[in-house]
């Protein structure tokens, strides 16, 4: 399916996987409405988008901000075809070291944010009888590890949210895809992008290519789950 003039909203688009995905989708003809909290980074992304990327700064956990993102997409392009819930970050500590503030903040972005943006777009998707909701989770939506209680809890929550959502919206012709990635060489990890230890991990561009593949399937095809790892990562 061609992405020419399809409208795609993507959160967490100011850097990392989100930024790479926004640029690749725009290069393939999509109109991309990119949102994140960092307005300066978003504006730089918009400048690189050759007129195909519209930046709307906002907090993904804010109902007001995400409604503004949806309204911008509808006002500028008349419809929404895909929503990519990509915003998220990690805190990796033992349970007794995690503060309540850290718990609340991470859950607000990773879990509440997925709900808020999806909810804002759903009425329009239902009314048009089509659409695609993508949630960029992690392979830790299906496993746990010591020091990962907070992050894995957020990803398990996204997994459960997707499972219920998928059953609700399929009768409306709306697709739901969960993306479960392994290790990605990005700013997300404590040693930062491009470190020697992560040279054989997935690249941000690999994830962007995966997203392009997922959202460009024919209308009758839905990829319910997409799991991808670097070869060196045990699975």
Automatic annotation (TrEMBL):
<feature type="domain" description="Ketoreductase">
    <location>
        <begin position="6"/>
        <end position="180"/>
    </location>
</feature>
<dbReference type="GO" id="GO:0016616">
    <property type="term" value="F:oxidoreductase activity, acting on the CH-OH group of donors, NAD or NADP as acceptor"/>
</dbReference>
<dbReference type="InterPro" id="IPR002347">
    <property type="entry name" value="SDR_fam"/>
</dbReference>
<dbReference type="Pfam" id="PF00106">
    <property type="entry name" value="adh_short"/>
</dbReference>
<dbReference type="GO" id="GO:0016020">
    <property type="term" value="C:membrane"/>
</dbReference>
<protein>
    <submittedName>
        <fullName>SDR family oxidoreductase</fullName>
    </submittedName>
</protein>
<dbReference type="InterPro" id="IPR036291">
    <property type="entry name" value="NAD(P)-bd_dom_sf"/>
</dbReference>
<dbReference type="InterPro" id="IPR057326">
    <property type="entry name" value="KR_dom"/>
</dbReference>
<keyword id="KW-0560">Oxidoreductase</keyword>
<comment type="similarity">
    <text>Belongs to the short-chain dehydrogenases/reductases (SDR) family.</text>
</comment>
